[in-house]
Amino acid sequence: MGSVVKINVLSVPEEMRETLEKRFASRAGAVENSDGFEWFELLRPVEGTDQYLVYTRWASEEHFKAWMEGPMQAAHRQGPPSAEGGEAAQRPAASGSTLWSFEVVQSAGPKK
């Protein structure tokens, strides 16, 4: 069996986009050091939607679940770091979230 891809679809109001991007930028290594982690991308919507896509690729479903139950839970309990401080700084940037799951059937990279 090949890799699995998890795409978290986040609905982010216009006024919270910068906050969301800063929070992801400050996560430094929060997922990259996890066993079975293969790839991460935060995709900003260009037009027609307020939905950001958080793309992660894992060696297996088990690796993803282990991350969800360990490092991810710990990171979200701590809350995002904030220079602004106060209650408003801690409120979620996204107004909704949906998780999509896929198995990698085919993939290709550039020919060198």
SSE layout and pairing:
Blueprint (H helix, E strand, L loop, with lengths): L3 E8 L5 H9 L11 E7 L7 E8 L2 H18 L7 H5 L5 E8 L9
Antiparallel strand pairs: 1-3, 1-4, 2-3
Structural class: alpha+beta
Please state how the strands of the largest beta sheet are arranged side by side: 2-3-1-4
Strand content: 25-35%
In round numbers, the mean pLDDT is 85
Instruction: Please give the share of residues in helix.
Output: 25-40%
| Element pattern in H and E | EHEEHHE
Helix tally equals: 3
Please explain how this structure is put together:
This protein has about 110 residues and is an alpha+beta fold. A four-stranded antiparallel sheet has the order 2-3-1-4. The longest helix is centred in the middle third of the chain and has 18 residues. The chain is globular and about 40 Å long.
Compose a concise summary of this entry.
Helix content is 29%, strand content 28%. With 112 residues, it is an alpha+beta fold. The protein has a four-stranded antiparallel β-sheet.
List keywords for this structure.
single chain; 112 residues; alpha+beta; 28% strand
